[in-house]
Write a structure and sequence with these properties.
Distance between the termini: 42 Å
Oligomer: single chain
Structural class: alpha/beta
Largest sheet: 7 strands, parallel
Mean pLDDT: 93
Radius of gyration: 19 Å
Shape: globular
Low-confidence stretches: none
Number of strands: 13
Number of helices: 10
Helix content: 25-40%
């Protein structure tokens, strides 16, 4: 298949590209490089530097495409509180322009990179795809809900084939966001530098951490689906942040102090996926356990952090 990946120079996109190419697909990456890194793009892929807000450019690139994997978005929760207009314009308006460009180009299949944040504070655990979407605590979450709604609208109005993947907490080698707001890379970088670990809520939150290679595989299986489908992508296993830190200490062989950051607005206490739907319908399951994934991630940062 001929696949366009928006945001394909980012952490998750680069892994998805590589897997698609390994399986014989033709991949074109669209990225404005505001957050992504050109060196992340597999040399087998075609790269187009463009912004989703540039609809005419999208209309030049999209004809002949079989499917779009849409990952391009701003993701820093704290930044979204400071810059709600920028997040709304980039994430929501960018998505609408992409959908319009797809419609005009005759491309009607999209796999959208969403987030477990759309559930807000969950009503029960594990979270299933049928659970109601919760009240949002930040503009980032609102943009993800709205992006989902636009994808579903184009399914209803224009018969788009839509797959929405709600990621839980991805981690793994290659995560080099600037600024970095995710727990695992921040924890590992602090430990390797022998600096205090930044810890919110004293590590009492529970999260479902999904290794990047498992997450990437979830983008291959839905390529031939038609209609509208929504899937959680998680391990169905909750890990308390304090226990995650202990695992990192065990793997590196020493401990560092904590930098107690107190409470953080917008955090929910627990997020754990039910992965039964994606397992039953697509045969997907998480193959990497947390210890194995952390080892690979620690090895990556050991190689890439300044000595």
């Amino acid at each position: 298949m001929r696949i366009v990946v928006t945001g394909g120079a980012g952490f998750i996109g680069s892994h998805v590209n590589r897997l698609q190419l390994d399986q014989g697909h033709t991949v074109t990456v669209i990225d404005n490089l505001s957050k992504g890194h050109k060196e992340n793009i597999d040399q087998r892929a075609t790269f187009v530097q463009a912004d989703l807000l540039d609809q005419p450019k999208l209309e030049d690139v999209l004809p002949g495409t079989d499917a779009v994997i849409h990952m391009a978005s701003l993701i820093e929760v704290g930044e979204s509180v400071k810059k709600p207009v920028e997040f709304a314009q980039n994430n929501i308006i960018g998505t609408v322009k992409l959908l319009e460009a797809m419609k005009k180009s005759g491309v009607k299949k999209i796999i959208f990179s969403s987030s477990a944040c759309v559930y807000g504070k969950p009503v029960k655990l594990p979270i299933t795809e049928d659970d109601p979407l919760g009240e949002q605590e930040n503009p980032y979450g609102i943009t993800k809900v709205t992006m989902e709604e636009f994808c579903m609208l184009y399914h209803r109005l224009f018969n788009f084939d839509v797959v929405i993947l709600r990621y839980f907490n991805p981690y793994g080698p290659g995560e080099l966001h600037d600024p970095e707001t995710h727990a695992i890379p921040n924890f590992i970088k602090a430990v390797l530098a022998k600096k205090p670990i930044p810890l919110f809520w004293k590590g009492e939150q529970t999260r479902d951490f999904i290794y990047i290679e498992d997450l990437a595989k979830a983008h291959i299986l839905p390529l031939n689906l038609t209609g509208l489908h929504i899937y959680n992508v998680g391990t169905a296993t909750g890990v308390k942040i304090a226990d995650l830190v202990k695992k990192i200490f065990q793997l590196v062989g020493y401990e560092v102090p904590f930098d107690d950051k107190g409470e953080r607005q917008g955090d929910v206490p627990e997020l754990v996926a039910s992965a039964e739907k994606i397992k039953n319908q697509l045969g997907w399951r998480a193959e990497f356990d947390l210890d194995e994934g952390l080892k690979k991630t620690i090895d990556f940062f050991r190689r890439h952090l300044p000595s």
